[in-house]
Every structure is written in C-alpha cells, then in structure tokens.
Write a structure and sequence with these properties.
single chain, 52 residues, mainly alpha, 0% strand, flat
C-alpha cells in the first residue's frame, strides 16, 4: 500500500503488464531504452570533458 500511496502523491499511474512479454509494454520498453542510451551518451561526454 505504501507504493500505491507514493505513486498517487507523485501523480504516477501504475500500469501492470504480464512479465517477460515486452510487446505488452512497448512504450515503457522504449522509454527505458531511450533513457539508458541518453545516460550512456552523457557519461561519455562527461568522461571526455574530464580528461582532454
């Protein structure tokens, strides 16, 4: 119940999908992929800037 309350306080909609079936949650999978790609890109930029 704490999780549901926290999500509600932060205006997060919880959507359940079957496990191990990425087709059921394509938007979430794409969002995570985009986040990871951007995170890795920024890590590379910081590394290059730190060590010229």
């Amino acid at each position: 119940m704490k999780f549901k309350r926290w999500c509600k306080q932060h205006d997060i909609d919880v959507i359940y999908a079957p496990p191990y079936y990425p087709q059921a949650k394509g938007k979430v999978e794409r969002c995570i992929r985009t986040f990871v790609e951007e995170y890795l890109r920024l890590q590379n930029v910081r590394f290059c800037c730190r060590y010229p």
